[in-house]
Design a protein that fits this description.
The protein has 76 residues and is an all-beta fold. The protein is built from no helices and six strands.
Length: 76
């Protein structure tokens, strides 16, 4: 493919703030942190969008930085 995006849910009950990292093809990771002031659950939020990619196979590595928080993946 020539691009990829990651969508998830944020504002989950319990108030833990999730931070995740996204690295495509070994590039420096991009950080996404769920806003701390959410009072509702939000679905299908874009956590990451790759830069334009050459056509072909690619590897995306997703890392949940916080050991004590949930990472809710909706779709890629």
């Amino acid at each position: 493919g020539i691009g990829i995006s990651v969508f998830g849910t944020q504002g989950t009950p319990g108030g833990n703030i999730t931070t995740s990292l996204y690295s495509i093809d070994g590039q420096s990771p991009v950080r996404y942190t769920v806003p701390s002031n959410l009072n509702t659950i939000q679905y299908s939020v874009q956590f990451y969008a790759s830069p334009p990619l050459t056509d072909g196979s690619h590897t995306l590595v997703i890392t949940n930085v916080n050991d004590n928080s949930w990472f809710w993946l909706d779709f890629i």
